[in-house]
DNA sequence: GGACGTTACTTGAAGTAGTTCAACTATACA
DNA sequence: TGTATAGTTGAACTACTTCAAGTAACGTCC
């Protein structure tokens, strides 16, 4: 068997297991959003907003690959919940900078903390496996995509 | 540091990396569904249906944790697309068995094949890491949850 | 410096996907 | 004959998407 084919086989097996595990734990994440009173779209929006820097509507719409009017709609929702504010940017008054409020920052932190908390099954793995998992995963590209 | 705390730390780091990677690759999976003409709910429905055995509406509604009427609605959609058929069970004529048609089986296979194909970044990892990843992941519970 | 095309964002209307609830039918079971 | 169960129907609602049209601010070219 070629080196390449061997890699594909191992990667396939690993991916399948990981993917299944992600699906199996999906309900926990739904429960998190539920508890925080967020829809999936709202949670994605929240995690797109860094606590320090505001972001233009356009850049958000691009990250979410949606229509600008959709971004307006979603940011409206967040604004009505007091999670973000819009501020017109001084250098270009067409651009609205979407900024997290203190409440928004707190909720974002709570959201990320919950989602980043490893499921119990994972913590229960042998330390050797956890280290290997971490080492392997750290070599994956940390694409700053639609998170 | 306690053994426990160390596990939590490694698991946390590993989980965070994996989680980010799953989010980063989410668009690929959306593209798969798109290509196959399936909504997320339909794809979940399809993968709940084993090619060999039919399943009652009730058991489907339970697996999807939704209202029975919701299951009716979803299965209606699949049936209209020729992916499943309903057959009344002989031993209890109240129960409808939802069965994949040949077309449904083919589509399910295509769906699972696509989703189980590991992303290129993963295949590109060193063989050593892939083996470790696979070994670690195989120790996770393969909960047969909402997949 | 005033008209002109462009860009950022918003508004409104229409549509799809999915959820929830209450009411109903048909079958089973006691 | 009643009561429970499996499934369906219909109505109302939320979350999201798409598209077309509109407003305001910017940049530029004469």
Explain what you see.
Two copies of one chain form a homodimer. The first copy, chain A, is mostly helical and 147 residues long. Chain A has a single domain, classed as Winged helix-like DNA-binding domain superfamily/Winged helix DNA-binding domain (Arc Repressor Mutant, subunit A), CATH 1.10.10. Chain A contains eight helices and three strands. Chain A has a three-stranded antiparallel sheet with strand order 1-3-2. Chain A is elongated. The interface between A and B is large, with 54 and 54 residues. Chain A binds a DNA duplex (30 and 30 nucleotides) through helix 4 and helix 5.
Q: What's the layout of helices and strands?
A:
The structure is a homodimer of 147-residue chains.
Chain A lengths: L2 H22 L1 H11 L3 H9 L6 E2 H7 L4 H13 L3 E5 L7 E5 L1 H15 L3 H4 L3 H11 L10
Antiparallel strand pairs in A: 1-3, 2-3
Helix pairs in contact in A: 2-6, 3-5, 4-5
Chain A binds a DNA duplex (30 and 30 nucleotides) through α4 and α5.
